């Protein structure tokens, strides 16, 4: 069923240009009607390059447009809170980049105001939309490898110069809130659980400044005494991303599966050898925006909800606190 949906982009960002405009336009009847940038010249150039009719530097002007039903927010992390609240109170549905905010209290307030305003709030955690992780989730749920024992997830790469900026020189950036938060959401999706405690050690100084982390090793304890290791970083070229889930009867192996691109393989290794799991890859963002579009028209829910965004943020901030204090931190989510 076609659901015409007009979108506004809050932020003339690289991710909007590379992935999101295409994902919106892939939904029948949907299009981008306007873009907001704090820099008028950047906004004008972005609009012209991407076939967007309207651009502005005023959030109020964008939100007052009746042809805009939903907004995608990809501005600096510290702006997400006030922009989401304003959009919700203007009656616009919100797909927001992670992290939703810089505190759990602010993120929880975003969820509350969106619910009160009767608009849908989604968090753009794209990895749970990957064919690889959907297959891994199904294998765990079906008991293919028996009871879970441990896991490891590796998501370290080299951050391109064009993407460094705020990620390595702003207190709202750093690898934990930019990248590891995706790993956290992926693990929550795979296990259908939140961890009960976390411990982390971080690196800084190879790319990042002023103590902002550019590498992390973390351990998360999930219910059932399942231990999970995460390695994340901005400074390791040529490293593949992947996940291994260890169970009582075998291991699930996901290779090259921590990417925005629809790539990667999944296999199961057990007493009979290693077996490839058939996959049908699809565009991760197309699926995310298809589910979000359906949700705002009353059918289902986003792939990652606002509540998912609150949980991933709370766990990410606990990792930061653990790295700062050297202590294992218990997880207590609202």
Automatic annotation (TrEMBL):
Q: Tell me where in this chain the GFO/IDH/MocA-like oxidoreductase domain is found.
A: 135-252
Single annotated GO MF: nucleotide binding
Q: Which InterPro entries match?
A: Gfo/Idh/MocA-like_OxRdtase_N (IPR000683), Gfo/Idh/MocA_Oxidoreductases (IPR051450), GFO_IDH_MocA-like_dom (IPR055170), NAD(P)-bd_dom_sf (IPR036291)
Q: Where is the Gfo/Idh/MocA-like oxidoreductase N-terminal domain?
A: 7-125
Q: What is this protein called?
A: Gfo/Idh/MocA family oxidoreductase
* Organism this protein belongs to: Gluconacetobacter diazotrophicus
């Amino acid at each position: 069923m076609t659901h015409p949906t007009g979108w506004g982009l809050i932020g003339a960002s690289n991710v909007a240009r590379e992935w999101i405009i295409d994902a919106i336009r892939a939904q029948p009847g949907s299009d981008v009607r306007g873009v907001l940038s704090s820099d008028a010249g950047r906004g004008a150039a972005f609009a012209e390059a991407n076939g967007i009719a309207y651009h502005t530097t005023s959030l109020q002007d964008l939100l007052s447009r009746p042809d805009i039903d939903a907004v995608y927010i990809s501005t600096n992390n510290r702006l997400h809170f006030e922009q989401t609240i304003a959009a919700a109170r203007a009656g616009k549905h919100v797909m927001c980049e992670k992290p939703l905010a810089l505190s759990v209290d602010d993120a929880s307030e975003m969820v509350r105001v969106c619910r009160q305003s009767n608009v849908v709030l989604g968090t753009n955690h794209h990895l749970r939309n990957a064919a690889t992780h959907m297959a891994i989730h199904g294998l765990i749920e079906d008991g293919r490898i028996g009871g879970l024992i441990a896991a490891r997830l590796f998501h370290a790469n080299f951050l391109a110069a064009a993407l460094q900026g705020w990620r390595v020189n702003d207190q709202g950036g750093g690898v934990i809130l930019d990248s590891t938060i995706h790993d956290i959401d992926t693990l929550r999706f795979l296990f259908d659980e939140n961890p009960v405690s976390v411990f982390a050690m971080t690196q800084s100084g190879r790319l990042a400044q002023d103590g902002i982390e550019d590498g992390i090793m973390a351990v998360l304890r999930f219910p059932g005494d399942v231990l999970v290791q995460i390695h994340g970083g901005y400074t390791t070229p040529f490293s593949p991303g992947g996940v291994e889930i260890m169970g009582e009867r075998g291991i699930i192996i996901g290779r090259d599966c921590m990417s925005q691109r629809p790539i990667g393989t999944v296999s199961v290794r057990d007493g009979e050898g290693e077996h490839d799991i058939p996959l049908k890859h699809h565009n991760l963002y197309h699926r995310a925006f298809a589910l979000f579009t359906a949700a705002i028209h009353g059918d289902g829910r986003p792939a990652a909800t606002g509540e998912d965004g609150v949980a991933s943020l709370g766990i990410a901030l606990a990792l930061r606190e653990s790295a700062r204090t050297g202590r294992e931190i218990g997880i207590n989510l609202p």
